[in-house]
Design brief:
Blueprint: E1 3-7, H1 10-13, H2 33-37, H3 39-46, E2 50-53, H4 61-72, E3 83-88, E4 94-98, E5 103-107, E6 116-117, E7 128-129, H5 136-150, H6 154-173, E8 178-182, H7 205-211, H8 224-237, H9 247-252
Parallel strand pairs: 1-2, 1-3, 3-8
Antiparallel strand pairs: 4-5, 5-6, 6-7
């Protein structure tokens, strides 16, 4: 089966979906339920793909581009995806490489705790471990500085635009189609070129779920019903040429 690479933050990773009362874990482990049942994972299956979910809770657009580049880098010998579901997050987020810890540290406004990610060839799903971080005070100071100077400012939005355009440009060179979606933080001020395929335009998952009254956690994450409904909503909007059976048409165009 063709594979869909999923990139994004906690919403694409299905964070806290497992906390829903009476959640059915018959076919899934507790650690991987969200990765398998989040809206992009369900969308992938609706369109005929096997989801390969590399979303990172607290992740950034910088991390999304970094991970995608790993898949198409000829020196890393990874299997290229057949399609990418890029679930963009807020422009104010970023990540830094912590040399002391040997891990990527995500900087995201609103996070009360940090999560470091165990490095491997690429950052894969489920590879997250909590604190302690020995140099936590340095990281906290860096995050405060980053958020103060980037959150909700034009250079934060430009950073998001940069990553969107870079990922889509590189994917086009590799003849890999990309479905661009927004979990939250859509860039409202700008129009994207036609080469950046956005079937929902400015519609965001979080706002969409709020408008329809879906239940959410204190952290703002949503449960299965919201993810399933949003996946179905997207599937109806996706141009038929992006379906698995017609992928050759995209590459030829």
């Amino acid at each position: 089966m063709k594979k869909a690479l999923i990139l994004g933050c906690s919403h694409a990773a299905g964070s806290e979906m497992v906390d829903e009362p009476e959640v059915d874990l018959l076919n899934y482990s507790q650690d991987h339920y969200g990765y398998c049942m989040s809206y992009p994972a369900q969308l992938a299956q609706l369109l005929g793909y096997h989801p390969v979910n590399h979303a990172i809770p607290g992740g950034s657009n910088d991390a999304m581009f970094r991970i995608f580049e790993s898949f198409v880098n000829p020196y890393k010998n990874f299997e290229k995806p057949d399609i990418v579901f890029a679930c963009w997050t807020g422009g104010e987020r970023t990540e830094v490489w912590d040399f002391e810890e040997g891990a990527w540290i995500g900087l995201a406004g609103g996070k009360t705790n940090f999560t470091k990610t165990i490095p491997d060839d690429i950052i894969r799903e489920g590879k997250l471990i909590p604190e302690p971080i020995d140099n936590r005070n340095d990281i906290v100071a860096y995050q405060k500085q980053w958020i103060t100077h980037h959150a909700d400012r034009w250079w934060g939005r430009m950073n998001k635009l940069k990553n969107i355009l870079a990922l889509n440009t590189m994917a086009a060179q590799e003849k890999i189609p990309v479905i661009n979606l927004d979990s939250f933080g859509a860039v409202q001020e700008y129009n994207f070129p036609d080469t950046v395929y956005r079937p929902l335009g400015q519609t965001e998952f979080c706002n969409w779920a709020v408008e329809r009254g879906f239940n959410n956690t204190k952290s703002g994450h949503y449960f299965l019903q919201a993810h399933r409904s949003f996946a179905n909503f997207i599937a109806k909007k996706v141009d038929p040429k992006y379906h698995a059976d017609n992928i050759g048409k995209i590459i030829a165009e």
